[in-house]
Design brief:
Helix content is about 55%, strand content about 0%. By secondary structure, the protein is an all-alpha fold. The protein is globular, with a radius of gyration of 16 Å. The two termini are about 30 Å apart.
Length: about 170
């Protein structure tokens, strides 16, 4: 739940802190955090700590630098693309498992939040359009819809799991 809202607010440093905090404590809420999720959140948090924005060069409309930044969401490194593909695969496996087992969220109270985190981090599909999240109520406002759609569009723009590299088998 906390991880989802950190991602929703765009605070990857806080998301990483949450994962580190619960990674050292035995907590039922975060007991099923896959290492691939921790890996990509850690990489994104490092990006956010080293520049003003994780989305690009941070020039605020001024002249662009001669070369693009070494890494950002729009120019991900190979390790970031690999981590995103791994999380995307985890999202697909989670959806398959949920659909075969009936997928009752009552069995796991934070199921929709976990699924949404995997969808956002992996870029598998937009949480605003995911059939598995249709009844979750996570996308309630225009702002929620825009944020979810933009996050997914960034994954499509870099040729992530949904775009070129993921569908080609990477």
């Amino acid at each position: 739940l906390k991880l989802f809202y950190c991602l929703r607010c765009g605070d990857l440093v806080a998301a990483n802190s949450i994962l580190q905090q619960f990674g050292t404590a035995a907590s039922e809420d975060m007991s099923h955090v896959d290492p691939s999720v921790s890996n990509i959140v850690s990489q994104l948090a490092q990006l956010q700590q080293t520049r003003e924005t994780i989305f690009g060069d941070g020039t605020h409309g001024n002249a662009r630098p001669a070369r693009p930044p070494a890494s950002s969401l729009l120019h991900p490194t190979q390790p970031m693309l690999h981590a995103r593909r791994t999380v995307s695969d985890l999202y697909r496996r989670t959806n398959t498992r949920s659909s075969h087992s009936g997928g009752s969220p009552a069995e796991e109270p934070f199921h929709h939040y976990r699924t949404a985190c995997l969808a956002m981090l992996g870029g598998a599909e937009s949480i605003s359009e995911a059939p598995a999240l249709a009844s979750s109520g996570l996308v309630k406002t225009v702002e929620d819809y825009l944020y979810a759609t933009l996050w997914h569009a960034i994954c499509l723009a870099d040729g992530g799991p949904v775009g070129g590299m993921g569908s080609a088998g990477g």
